[in-house]
Amino acid sequence: MKTLKMILSGAALLLAAATGTALAHGDMAPQPVDTKDLPKLGEAWLPENPYRGNTKAIEIGAAAFNQNCARCHGLGAVSGGIAPDLRYLPTGLDGDEWFLTRIRGGSTRDGRVYMPKFEGILSQEAMWSIRAWLETVHEE
User: Fold this and answer.
1) Is residue 38 a contact partner of residue 54, using CB atoms and an 8 Å limit?
2) Which region, left, alpha or beta, applies to residue 6 given φ > 0 means left and ψ of -120 to 50 means alpha?
3) Environment class of residue 21 by beta-carbon count within 10 Å: exposed (0-12), middle (13-18) or buried (19+)?
4) How far apart are CA 38 and CA 59, in angstroms?
5) Alpha helices in the chain (DSSP H)
6) Quick check: 117 pLDDT over 60?
7) In which element (H, E) is residue 79 found?
8) Which residue did the predictor score with more confidence, 5 or 61?
9) SS3 assignment, position 47
C-alpha cells in the first residue's frame, strides 16, 4: 500500500510539473501565416495598420493569433495572467505604435525573454493582420 501511495504521489508530481511547463512561457516554434490574399505592404514598416476593418485580414489575424500568440496571451486575447490581456490595448494609432514595437522587438527584462521578437519571423502583413483582429475583440 505504501508503495502504491509513493507511485501515485510521484505520478501526481510529474503531471503537475508537465502541466506547469505546458502553460508557462517556453520554446515555441512560430507558425507560418498565409497572407497571400492580402495587399502586399512592401519593405518599409508602416506606422499605422493598413488592414484596419479588412475582413480578410481579420480572418487571417484571428488564426495567426491563435497559432502564435494565444499560448501566452490567451484564447480570444483573454489573458490568464501570463502576459498582457491584449483586449485592452488602445485602438487606433496609439495602440498600433505599442503593438508594432512589441511584436517586432519582443520584450526582455533582466536578461529574461518575456516575449520573443517576431521581426524576421512573421511578415509585416501577418503582424498587421493580427492587430486588425485584436481591434475586433477590444474592450475598454
Assistant:
1) yes
2) alpha
3) exposed
4) 11
5) 2-23, 55-68, 70-73, 92-105, 124-136
6) yes
7) none
8) 61
9) coil
